[in-house]
């Protein structure tokens, strides 16, 4: 028991009352102010200047403090029962440790169209800049705010033109199909921060992933061929999760994926040739993803 000033009659009466009724060492606490307000609460900390506590107000659990100059007396375990659940007390906060997210949505490649591309193919290349993606990530939070995990994403875009005309080395005019079917995979560890709302149905998250990217293009320019490449990549994502139940959330996510290829392998059906791209002409894999998905938490 802690007394700030000497109001002997009140203090003695309260001591006798507490001594008689305090039977449960894990019960609710009591704060009495100089304004004769009695606050049923759970005291979480007492400093040299303030007393910190959690209390229930109109069905909501609130955390606040009072300056000790306002407090006549405070008593731990004044009540035999505790009306503030343990998970609502600072230091014992219950929060989801596991989060599995599944996303899908639209993507846009950020690289500019090369000046080497003929003018009549610019519209083809513009259409190739848009595509779709899906992703999945698993995170474990070792505190309410900080977590680690693994992130995977898949991106695809494709386009084709039925008839194009190409002049070969002998000056012959050849007609055929132009097509690209590009897919990019990313996988790597992720580091994340999370900010839960006060009653924890919603959350804002930021994540940074560093990992391995693969590039595959099943292409055709009169004849078919395949392009493959590998590189290191990075993903920066921002998510907002909205609670649907205690174990499921609906989320929206904006992600920035960054990476580029300095070399590629080209397979023409018989042989594979490695091509080193000159600096300034690397194949950019950077894109923006906008997605929606479900989150499963526990």
Describe the model.
The longest helix has 14 residues, at 8-21. The chain has 2 helices and 18 strands. It has 2 domains: 2-88, SH3 type barrels (Roll); 98-297, Porin. It is mainly beta.
List keywords for this structure.
Porin, disordered N terminus, 2 domains, 298 residues, eight-stranded antiparallel β-barrel, SH3 type barrels, mainly beta, 18 strands, six-stranded antiparallel beta sheet
User: Structural class of the helix and strand makeup?
Assistant: mainly beta
Q: Could you state the order of secondary-structure elements as H and E?
A: EHEEEEEEHEEEEEEEEEEE
CATH topology of the largest domain: Porin
Question: Residue-averaged pLDDT, rounded?
Answer: 85
Per CATH, the class of the largest domain reads Mainly Beta
The dominant shape is rod-shaped
Largest sheet: 8 strands, antiparallel, barrel
Number of helices: 2
Cross-sheet strand order for the largest sheet: 7-8-9-10-11-12-13-18
Low-pLDDT segments, ≥5 res: 1-6, 15-25
Number of strand elements: 18
Overall tally of domains: 2
Radius of gyration, whole Å = 31 Å
Task: Tell me the span between the first and last alpha carbons.
Answer: 39 Å
Q: What percentage of the residues does DSSP assign to strands (E)? A: over 45%
The share of residues in helices is: under 10%
CATH architecture of the largest domain: Beta Barrel
């Amino acid at each position: 028991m802690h007394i700030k000033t000497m109001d002997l009659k009140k203090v003695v009466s309260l001591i006798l009352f507490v001594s008689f009724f305090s039977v449960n060492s894990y019960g609710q606490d009591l704060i009495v102010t100089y304004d004769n307000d009695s606050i049923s609460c759970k005291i979480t900390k007492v400093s040299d200047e303030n007393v910190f506590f959690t209390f229930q107000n109109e069905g909501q659990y609130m955390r606040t403090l009072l300056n000790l100059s306002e407090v006549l007396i405070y008593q731990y375990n004044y009540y035999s029962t505790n009306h503030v659940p343990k998970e609502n007390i600072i230091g014992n906060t219950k929060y989801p440790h596991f989060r599995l997210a599944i996303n899908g949505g639209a993507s846009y490649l950020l690289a500019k169209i090369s000046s080497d591309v003929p003018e009549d193919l610019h519209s083809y290349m513009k259409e190739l800049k848009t595509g779709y993606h899906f992703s999945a990530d698993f995170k474990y939070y070792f505190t309410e705010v900080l977590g680690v995990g693994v992130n995977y994403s898949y991106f695809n875009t494709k386009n084709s033109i039925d008839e194009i005309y190409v002049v070969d080395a002998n000056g012959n005019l050849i007609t055929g199909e132009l097509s690209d079917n590009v897919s990019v995979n990313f996988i790597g560890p992720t580091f994340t921060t999370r900010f839960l709302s006060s009653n924890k149905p919603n959350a804002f998250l930021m994540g940074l992933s560093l990992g391995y990217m693969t590039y595959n293009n099943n292409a055709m320019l009169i004849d078919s061929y395949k392009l493959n490449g590998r590189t290191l990549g990075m993903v920066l994502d921002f998510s907002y999760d909205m609670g649907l139940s205690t174990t499921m959330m609906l989320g929206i996510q904006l992600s920035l994926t960054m990476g580029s290829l300095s070399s590629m392998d080209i397979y023409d059906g018989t042989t594979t040739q490695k091509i080193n791209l000159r600096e300034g002409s690397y194949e950019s894999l950077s894109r923006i993803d906008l997605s929606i998905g479900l989150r499963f938490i526990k």
